[in-house]
Structures are given as structure tokens and as C-alpha cells.
């Protein structure tokens, strides 16, 4: 089957991922077919298999790519020495990174149930790597007597869930600018780690 005019691997591959991410975020993994993705990309359905062996692999790669980008961006940021500055920086980083990628965030969290057990395990490993970075900050803060946290793992998961939840309602141009929202979230994170608000 011939490619449609303008279908080039270096363009079509990224387009397949972009379209698939958007459709899955809007309709859910189970409701999106490879034929639908192909139609939105502008290629024959069979052409998709040049870029991914199946829909499960496509979903996993979308989620893995999101986590890889998250971990790479976090590693490139560096880290402050002061434990409170580290916590505040993590909060700002998480909000900024995720607010720019609402579709990827939605798919990465809501479609975990549709991964095969092997793919789920791989994704969980990447998520744990990221979560461990925040938990290390909390543990250091507890050890320094700066934070009062009963369980660092639960608090880590609660903070990440709270920060990630912003992507379900935040829209650019809303009532408050993102800088102000960040300051409010930082205050809430301080409360979660047992710091009195000044």
C-alpha cells in the first residue's frame, strides 16, 4: 500500500504520537482505534505499523517518553543545598513541567490500568525514581528537624497527587497567574510537611 503524499518517517512518526496522545487523552485508550489514529494523521491504517507494532506499545511509549522527559528535565535543573529551597524548587518544577503537558499527564496517570503487567512494572520503576527524589527531600528535612512528617512515603504520594491535580483545572489566562498559583501550592506543601505558615 502506497504512502499518502507528504507521509515521511521523520514527520509521520512524531505526528502519530502527537495524535495518539491527544485522542487517548480525550476519549480513553479503549475507545481509540488504530484506524482512528491513522485517519487523524492522514495515512492508511496499515502505515501505522511502520511506527509502532501495536496500540499497547504505542501507549507504553507515550507514557515512557513522558517519564523520561520528566526525569531528564529534573536532572538538568540541579539542586539547592537548603532542604526548604529543595522542596520549593521541586514544587515549582513539578507544576511548571506538568502544566505545559496536560494530555501527557492525563494519559500517564489515568491509563496505567491499560498497560500490560510488564509495561506497568517498567512505568512504575520510572515513577518511583521520580517519587524517590521528593521523598529524599522529605527525609532530609525530617532529619534536620525542619519538617514534621509521620510517613515520608505517604506524604510524598500525597504531595505529588496534589501538584499533579492542578493540570485538571488550570488554564492559561485564568483568574490567577501561574506564579501566584505556585505560591499558594508552596504554602500548601509547607503545611503538608508540618511547617507553620508565616
UniProtKB/TrEMBL annotation:
Stretches assigned to the HTH tetR-type domain: 10-70
Alphabetic keyword roster: DNA-binding, Repressor, Transcription, Transcription regulation
Record feature DNA-binding region, as residue ranges: 33-52
Designated name of the protein: TetR/AcrR family transcriptional regulator
